[in-house]
Amino acid sequence: MQNKPVDTSRLGLIRCVAAPEARMTPDGQQRRDRDGALQWVTALAVRQQEGRRIDVLEVVVSGSQPEGITEGAVVTVRDLWSVDWTVDGRSGTSWRAAAITAAPGPRAESAASGRKGGAE
Description:
With 120 residues, the protein is mainly β. The chain has one helix at residues 106-119; strands spanning 2-5, 14-22, 39-47, 54-62, 75-78, 81-87, 90-96, 99-102.
């Protein structure tokens, strides 16, 4: 496995597309990290600044469940790492972060109000 830090300032807008939920094992138990802390997974859409491409990253955080993160909210990700892995001939990249929080400022508020207005 190779861990690589990600410079989130180069990612552009990061928006939650699936609210935080418990990361589960195949037998239905919530996963824990090496230190025993519970793990939570949040799907984030990242629009690259250089173009129209959007990627969805399922980002895992350990500890307390991220609070105040709702679908459609603009978020801030602290200490994002990509982790390349290979298991039994399969390979991929997983994503880990120290924290995911609601982004402060008018963009976060306008995203929430725009979503409410369209639903009414």
